[in-house]
Design goal:
By secondary structure, this protein is mainly beta. The protein has one helix and 16 strands. A hairpin with a 7-residue loop joins β8 and β9 (134-135). The protein is globular and about 45 Å long.
Length: 234
Amino acid sequence: MQHRALVLLLAALTAGCASAAGSGDEALVFGGGGGGGFAVSGCDPEATPTRFISCVLSYEPGPGAGFGQAKFPEIIYGPPIGGGTANGSQDVLTLGGGGEIAFGFGGNAIVDGPGADFIVFENPFDIAGDPTDPYAEPGVVSVSEDGVTWVDFPCEKDTYPYTGCAGWHPVISNPANGISPFDAATAGGDPFDLADVGLTRARYVRIRDVSFKGASPTEGFDLDAAAIVHAETP
């Protein structure tokens, strides 16, 4: 029990640590300290299509957020920086308890294809190597075509397995190991299929923390990256 408590404490302290990633313009902050919001430029449908996050519609951090904000929005751009089954990535943006973020992929869209259509990467890890006991911070994932009307994926947030949620499968893909972030069978992270919510296309993804787990400045869901598996513009 003492070992487990130590592992959980270390996870809470490291889950939201930030590092630089990607490139782009800094957002203008009008909130902070885990509250308020961040001014963002939105997503231009005429922008260059990407298969990773490249624009942000909104970011509303909840209480206990903080890590990653100094590098927002670049920290969530580009491929995941997975830490494997035993370590949580530090390349993340913390949402805070109940916080949420909505983002897009430039001028690209997710389209329905065989199996998973997109993958969300957080930073969970398996406690003591047990895949049935992940350090998970579940988030509800929603998708939208217009950024106004959203459809939620049902998320069983209260106990393992956290079916339909993001934030409970360790992230394996990392630029250093060559594992494709577009392969749902090997990349790790949490895959989503548009067919599960009756859609064939979506331009935007939103994630809302429902874990309220951890302590400031690392409370809640920690977003590393997202990748389109089936893209309208590959």
